[in-house]
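Run: sequence + zinc ion -> complex structure.
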Amino acid sequence: MVERIKETKETKKMNKDEKKKIEAYIHCRKCIDELPKDKSPQEFSAIEVGYTADGVLIWCKRHDCKITHLDNNFKYKEAVDLLMDYWDSIPDEAKPELHKALESLGV
Ligand SMILES: [Zn+2]
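>> structure
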């Protein structure tokens, strides 16, 4: 349960500072395709966000579909994908050991 905190000038500024950290908003593709000309994506979005057993699910209420599921390990998986992009430049003699280490991590 989220505790409500009385908004003061200080908390208002803190909230604005937190919002500035957003680098890209998450939207439903279908909603963006249907976006009315007089509305912004923020005004038109109909999103529900909730915890799942292994992450956070973002759901479009309008289209009743999943927008994305942010797995608890999504940053970790992105790092592994990045490593795979450079796999060919890793010395061949290091690959078996690295492969074994990655397997032991379950990736
Ligand atoms: Zn939608």
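>> summary
Residues 28, 30-31, 60, 62-63 surround zinc ion (CB under 6 Å). Residues 28 and 74 are 19 Å apart (CA to CA).
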